[in-house]
Amino acid sequence: MSCFIFNRNKLIRIPMKDIVLIKAAGPFTNIYTVNGEKYPTNLTLKEFEEILGDKEFCRVHRSSIIALPRIQSIEARVVDLGDRQVAVSRTYYPLLLSKIDKFFKVKTKKKKK
């Protein structure tokens, strides 16, 4: 699957499997891909949430959506996506753990003693 965005008067197709991070930056939203490209667009994060669905992507901050398959590690509410680190807000952290459980079919909750 792919999404199409307008970028500098040009319609560009971006395969969803290539998206690593979507980050709000003032009046624009930047899409970062696996090949290091950055595509600014005027779509909002809310619009991206609707376009992408919730299976492979997760909002982790009011200004960031990440691709779950690109997660390398999570430490102290910071997600390592390989070449980028993204902060996870307290509000979105439980959602991220829940989506990781479903997507990777693992349990992220620590057992209580």
Summarize the structure.
By secondary structure, the chain is of the alpha+beta class. The chain is built from 2 helices and 10 strands, in the order βββββαβββββα. 22% of the residues are buried.
Describe this structure in words.
With about 110 residues, this protein is an alpha+beta fold. The protein has a single domain (about 1-105), classed as OB fold (Dihydrolipoamide Acetyltransferase, E2P), CATH 2.40.50.1020. About 20% of the residues lie in helices and about 40% in strands. A 5-stranded antiparallel beta sheet has the order 5-4-3-7-6. A hairpin with a 4-residue loop joins β9 and β10 (about 85). The model has no long low-confidence stretch (mean pLDDT about 90). Pfam families: LytTR. This is LytTR family transcriptional regulator.
Number of strands: 10
Strand fraction: 35-45%
Radius of gyration: 14 Å
Low-confidence segments:
none
What is the CATH superfamily classification? LytTr DNA-binding domain
Q: Enumerate the strands of the largest sheet in spatial order, edge to edge or round the barrel.
A: 5-4-3-7-6
CATH class: Mainly Beta
Report the span from N to C terminus. 44 Å
* CATH topology-level name: OB fold (Dihydrolipoamide Acetyltransferase, E2P)
What is the annotated CATH architecture? Answer: Beta Barrel
Shape: globular
How many domains? The number is 1
